[in-house]
Amino acid sequence: MTSAAEQFASNINLASFAKADELKKRLLFTLGALIIYRLGTFVPLPGIDPDAFSQGFQSQQDGILGTLNIFAGGAVERMAIFALNIMPYISASIIMQLMSAVIPSLEAIKKEGEQGRRQINQYTRYLTVFLATMQGYFIAISLQGQTGVVSDPGPFFLLSTVVTLVGGVMFLLWLGEQITARGVGNGVSLIIFAGIVAELPRAIAGLLDQGRTGAGVGGGAIVIIALLALALIAFVVFMERSQRRIVVQYPRRQVGQRMTQGEKSHLPLKLNVSGVIPPIFASSLLLLPATAISAIGDGSPDWLQTVGFMFAPQKPLYIALYAALIIGFTFIYASVVFKPEEVADNLKKYGGFIQGYRPGARTAEYLDYVLTRLTMVGAMYLTFVCILPEVLKASYSQSIPVYIGGTSLLIVVSVTLDTVSQIQGHLVAQQYESLIKKSKLRGGRR
């Protein structure tokens, strides 16, 4: 049964969108900010030869660099100033959220309201600078080790590259915050979304070209891949919108001299409580060994190169560890974002209870029971969607673009659903405002 808000939102049409001037301004601002981001992905780092690097990238695009290139919107392939994209901030945010759950002092700061949230955000930015600096240094060392890529190797090149890459990350972080405040949707998520979507046409064109020339996959396989991609999108949308609604009962209350009827509400628990965080964190963690080894170059010991080969994407060890980390981080992150004890205490505080369970500890046990089973289903779902493209690429000699599944697909679908929901919210607010203005005009005429 749909709620009154959902019924009201279903009546929104293009005419109501045309009247929403504030929403149109927000959409134009978001589009302009994303265009600025895309322009930055074509500005190369100072002191390098983009053509020489691009030639070397072609031989490594199916490995770690190709994976990083997905989230950077092609900036890694061009070694642009936004090559690190916003990923250091994502990693820093995940680390801070996990640390806030296990370190009492950070947990106390987090509970201080708006002031605590600002302090945690500041710590996250410091950690972002540190992670971006480390990654930028590894990239600079790796670039210096490639013949003909760097025009003037040396300390100045290392310093300028690190500063440029860190500055690019912080600029994108600022740009994402501006989109969140003055645009539509979550700015950081939209930046990653724009990078992935911008590379989709080229990936599809490359796949079709393989079918035309007969190199890699045939025409029949392309049709199967297209149907599989559509099925995966429908599956992800269904799973992301799925939720378990727990009925919460509120007792009768006396307001003045009138006795109010007992009310029923729902406590919605998403099937995928953790969202796309576990796959992102798992892939980031698995890419660290390969990143460090690639930075050392050919001078690394044989055993270290063997380890790097085993941790390369599409390898059996990589796939097994990837699946294990996704499942583990799903449970860890779910316990961070949803705490049954706090929810049970809040229900008890406002007089709510779940029928058949005593308020307090018994309710917390039941919520934990439900959350554990939902998280298991969510972990299996995330693992299936993320592992499938890795298996396909390994089976078809890495000729399948990873854009059809995995973390990229999860991000695209999740961000699209969230952005559409926010647009719908702005339209609903605009409709309510117009109704209020009409009622005031009628009241004034009377």
In a nutshell, what does this entry contain?
The protein has helices at 4-10, 14-19, 21-40, 50-58, 64-71, 87-102, 104-110, 114-144, 155-182, 187-213, 219-241, 277-296, 302-310, 316-337, 340-349, 361-395, 406-445; strands at 243-250, 253-255, 258-260, 263-270. By secondary structure, the protein is mainly alpha-helical.
Describe what this molecule looks like in 3D:
- This protein is mainly alpha-helical and about 450 residues long.
- The protein folds into two domains: about 200 residues, Orthogonal Bundle (Preprotein translocase SecY subunit), CATH 1.10.3370.10; about 230 residues, SecY subunit domain (Preprotein translocase SecY subunit).
- It contains 17 helices and four strands.
- The strands form two sheets. The protein has a two-stranded antiparallel ribbon.
